[in-house]
Automatic annotation (TrEMBL):
Coiled-coil annotated residue ranges, if any: none
Annotated protein name in UniProt: Uncharacterized protein
InterPro entries linked: ANTAR, CheY-like_superfamily, GAF, GAF-like_dom_sf, GAF_ANTAR, WH-like_DNA-bd_sf
Gene3D superfamilies cross-referenced by the UniProt entry: 3.30.450.40, Winged helix-like DNA-binding domain superfamily/Winged helix DNA-binding domain
Pfam families: ANTAR, GAF_2
Cited SUPFAM superfamilies: CheY-like (SSF52172), GAF domain-like (SSF55781)
Organism field: Mycolicibacterium celeriflavum
Assigned keywords, A-Z: Kinase, Transcription, Transcription regulation, Transferase
Amino acid sequence: MTQPRTHDLAERMAELARASAAPRTVDEVLEDVTATAKELIPGADTVGVLLVARGGKFESLAGTSDLPHELDELQMQFGEGPCVQVALNESIVRTDDFRSEERWPRYAAAAVERDILSGLSVKLYTAERTAGALNMFSTKPHAFDAEDETIGAILAAHAAAAILASREGEQLKSAMSSRDRIGQAKGIIMERYGVDDVRAFEMLKQLSQDSNVKLADIAQRVISTRHGAGQ
């Protein structure tokens, strides 16, 4: 990696890290990552992120233009393509010229029709239910090299960390919300039926088991009945 690009990458990664420290959505972080990839990788004319869940559900995020989203949809439609392959299997896939690409004939032809001649896809991460890829596309053949792969891998790692941190935060927020609802519902039952904390919780659990509904949802129903009665 040449010295100027190394310096630029270090500066941009520091900026991304500082920006991520503030409360931000996943979309905002990924938009910074794709914009940075476009800035630091000369061949990248357009950049996007593809997340693929089990069962074929997918999200196309943070495109620097509409084209990455269109290409993602085509890949999922055809069931082939570099972004899907990277998201689910490979770590890095580079296509030097889609006009002679034989691995994904239908997708390659569709890319060429849209004036995309080369691409670089880098795995974000593979979690239990979701896989992802950072995808860069160029209107020129042979637009990407090994140095671009390194920069892409560093940016992909940053994006992966942001996604995982956000989802852990969402899970924590959800758990805290559930705990609060259960506590509130227990208080309502204690007041309504004149029982103690332990008995109120047992009643909630029994309702949950009998109706095959999550405990937090049962708690919400109890809270809603009280609010309804108070209106």
